[in-house]
Amino acid sequence: MMEERFHINAADPTPLYAQLERAIRFAIATERLRVGEQLPTVRQLAIDLRINANTVAKVYAELERTGVLETRRGVGTFVRARQDATAMRLPRGERERELRAFADRVLAEAHGLGLSLNELIEHLKSRGKKENE
Q1: Are residues 60 and 69 in contact, defined by beta-carbon separation less than 8 angstroms?
Q2: Which of 53, 65, 111, 130 is a Cys-bridge partner for 46, taking CB atoms 3.0 to 4.6 Å apart?
Q3: Residue 89: other Cβ atoms inside 10 A
Q4: Fold classification of 2-79 (topology level)
């Protein structure tokens, strides 16, 4: 079932749309959702996750805007093939700002979970090794 791929926690202070966006991106990154795979309709995913359909629609629209998903009129929403990395590359200054902001979010969340920087780094290293095997 699709909802098993996405972990949404109503008790989490993170807004539901942010949780869903992160869950979809994570499912794609870990290949639980593959390029070309169709996602459930907005209505179906909202029912499965017990969240508002407008929330799902907002996430789908944002992920389509950023090139993660594509909607084929009358057919559905699909995981989009990654664009050539050079075509999507951000200007150097913007890339650095995005990376810094991303690292700040990861570090803040890790700190909130009681994880040290070293624990986080070791976990990422071991995940990277598994991905490259």
Answers
A1: yes
A2: 53
A3: 11
A4: Arc Repressor Mutant, subunit A (1.10.10)
Domain boundaries of the chain, sorted by first residue: 2-79, 90-132
**Cα 130 from Cα 133, distance rounded (Å):** 5
Task: Tell me the pLDDT tens digit for each residue of 19-49.
Answer: 999 999 888 888 889 999 999 999 999 999 9
Question: For residues 49 and 19, what is the distance between their CA atoms, to the nearest angstrom?
Answer: 11
pTM for the full model? Answer: 0.65
φ, ψ of residue 84 in degrees (nearest 5): -55, 130
Q: What residues in the chain have per-residue pLDDT under 50?
A: 1-2, 84-87
Q: Taking Cα atoms as reference points, which of 45, 37, 42 lies closest to residue 79? A: 37
| The pLDDT value given to residue 133 | 59
Taking Cα atoms as reference points, which of 3, 14, 44 lies closest to residue 112? 14
Angle at 43 between CA 18 and CA 29, to 5 degrees: 45
